[in-house]
């Protein structure tokens, strides 16, 4: 599977932050997670030389490496990393590696230095002016990543693609956005994504510009466009928000919603007229679903899709087990102790993962 189609867990757009770098003399570390593609203007010089849209360290005159630490905006399971050296030609690092850590709370850079860092990408060669992709095979949920370049140089972007895994301790499972990317929902199909990714529909926050939403090509046939979302877990949708903000001459004329349980689809919202540049809200009623399909007629753009409701008992079980199963061993044990189990019970249960039912104290 091409992991680059998965959400970028580190992007500034979803709340990522570059917490620390040991050096950033030529270009700021914050550029690493900018959502935009890197740019370049030749012969554009500042006080420290050519201005680069990336992170660039000084030339080393002694042995060593340079590093930057990123807090993921969406903690989750990392499936792949792209180290993009766009426009760095004579000044890119020849090697890099990437590590991940899973830490509760809001640790400082000094505290993160002592975290349990696990290898995600081994020491690997890099090419200049290239998107260097690396597959990651680690099933655990991470909150931070550390990029190390050997020995020095410039990296334009760091993309950390994967699957968000929500922490249920910070959610109201009886009232939440079942379609939110940060809660574990995912786009599992769409008819067209010519202008922009349908994953934007379920991303955090409001769209700032038209490009932050999902927009299809203009249709020249009798069909319509659609997108399907696998919800964070099974739940009953009670309110839908279809947001066409910023889409003025290219908003859909109408939209409908259908829900699925197993192989059966049924109507949640009949075909309904939409207005351009508007947040539409609709009250819904119906049985619990695991997937929702939005059809737009005939084509056009949508900024956000929100599906508010409550998880079923089965949905709550699935969401909590997903979190527990992806935590590193020490964090999983700590979570079970927090829930009332003894340290011995917690350690014994963690050794039996994956869980299919939420463990309970006996």
TrEMBL record:
PANTHER family given in the database record: ALLANTOICASE (PTHR12045), INACTIVE ALLANTOICASE-RELATED (PTHR12045:SF3)
Gene3D superfamilies linked: Galactose-binding domain-like (2.60.120.260)
HAMAP family: Allantoicase
Recorded metabolic or biological pathway in which this protein acts: Nitrogen metabolism; (S)-allantoin degradation; (S)-ureidoglycolate from allantoate (aminidohydrolase route): step 1/1
Origin species: Actinophytocola algeriensis
Protein name: Probable allantoicase
EC number(s) recorded for this UniProt protein: 3.5.3.4
Lineage: Bacteria, Bacillati, Actinomycetota, Actinomycetes, Pseudonocardiales
Substrates-to-products reaction catalysed: allantoate + H2O = (S)-ureidoglycolate + urea
Matching SUPFAM superfamilies: Galactose-binding domain-like
Record GO biological process: allantoin catabolic process; purine nucleobase metabolic process
All copies of domain Allantoicase, residue ranges: 15-164, 184-310
InterPro entries: Allantoicase, Allantoicase_dom, Galactose-bd-like_sf
Superkingdom of origin organism: Bacteria
Family assignment from sequence similarity: Belongs to the allantoicase family.
